[in-house]
Structures are given as structure tokens and as C-alpha cells.
Amino acid sequence: MAKYKITIKKSAAKELEDIPKKDLRKIIKRIQSLAQNPRPHGSQKLSAQSRFRVRQGDYRIVYSVEDKNSIVDIVKIGHRREIYRL
Questions:
Q1: Complete edge-to-edge strand list for the sheet that includes strand 71-79
Q2: What residue ranges define each of the domains in the chain, with the CATH number in brackets?
Q3: pLDDT, position 52
């Protein structure tokens, strides 16, 4: 399987700053693992969107996958109780 390039939107990078350090390391590791497998076991496609989400503890990472250019774009990162609110 080809290695994907990880891109993070500015808003998602800002959301990373608010996450406690104990959870931050695990989230970063999970994001890096998406480069090898953008659709790991446990990832779910979000309905009515062309995005996926993966769990890391109480946090969710929402991302889109562009297979043609081998890019995983991290769109949103947040706590499970807040991630899906607009």
C-alpha cells in the first residue's frame, strides 16, 4: 500500500493546542498511522459526507482521503461530545 501524505488544516492544528498533553501524544501517533493505512479497522465513513472519523480515546479525528494524490487531510480534531456540533 502506498504511503499517504498527511496535511492538517489550520483550524485542526489550532484544536490540537487545546488538547491535554497526556492525550496529545496518542492523537499524534494515530494521525501518523493514517499515512500507512488511511482506513484502519475502526474507522467509519461519516454519513452524507466524503469524510471518515477515527477514535482515539475520548477524542475523534475527522479526515478526508484523496486516493488519487495519496493525501489524508485532517479536517477536525476534538472531544467526542463536541466534535459533531456545527
A1: 5-8, 71-79, 59-66, 52-56, 44-45
A2: 5-79 (3.30.2310.20)
A3: 95
